[in-house]
Amino acid sequence: MKKTLLAVVAFALLHSSCTTNAQKSQSSLFVLVHGAWGGGWAFKEVDLLLSAKGHTVYRPTLTGQGEKVHLADKSIGLDTHIADIVNVIKYEELDDIILVGHSYGGMVVTGVANQLSDRIKHLVYLDAVVPSNGESAASIMGSLGISTDGFIIPSWVREDQQPPKDVPHPAKTWSDSIVVDDELLKGLSTTYILTVDSGKSAAQDDFYSQSQRAQNRNWSVLQLEADHNAQWSAPNELAELLCKEL
Predict the structure, then answer these.
(1) C or N: which end of the chain has fewer Cβ atoms within 10 Å?
(2) Closest listed residue to residue 154, CA positions, set 40, 66, 44
(3) How many CB atoms are closer than 10 A to CB 198?
(4) What is the rounded distance in angstroms from the CA atom of residue 213 to the CA atom of residue 219?
(5) pTM of the model
(6) What's the pLDDT score for residue 148?
(7) What are the pLDDT digits (tens) for 109-133?
(8) Is 172 left (phi over 0), alpha (psi -120 to 50) or beta?
(9) What is the DSSP string of 158-220?
């Protein structure tokens, strides 16, 4: 009986090992950049799903957000957040990257791509802001709501709420204009994923105008049935889309 059980376990481990090796031969490298108020924690489930398929995933947190909230300062600007991701890529020696930016993260990945275009295999805007040179998130999307002493406050977070949770976002990052070479960015393979709530049309989505920008740039535009935070409302579908379509 024990020998039979050991044989079953050994077969299972061997099968698991073979599956893992097969997955690794087709693996991709993802760098996931979160949006305003968030943190790398927001993409934990998507990370687990992609990693289970044999992919390598980095989900860094921008300065002043998530577990780095203790570094929050109103002087933090867009360039700081761009440098956060640029330095992860440089210090981890990453190459052939699928760089994904969610929401405000579209501003960040645009700046990163401008600096490290040779390291990026594919650029993905996930229901994200699509800026051109000289634009800011504020000039494109308007005000985010209540600002207090240099921070945009997430009104939906309770004072007694425990981490992980959304935290105040440095307002300067939202108003800073981006400096990029639009012609350089045109040469990158890019996809836009528009998330649309169930029962609504694409045109009703807050980021529909950004998907139109993507279409005008001849990018691939995909649609995913989910709310704005697909990493929570449709993590499996998002992971599958990232794996299959890119």
Answers:
(1) N
(2) 66
(3) 9
(4) 9
(5) 0.89
(6) 87
(7) 999 999 999 999 999 999 999 999 9
(8) alpha
(9) -TTPPSS----EEHHHHHPPP---HHHHHTS-EEEEEEE-TTS-GGGSTTHHHHHHHHHTT-E
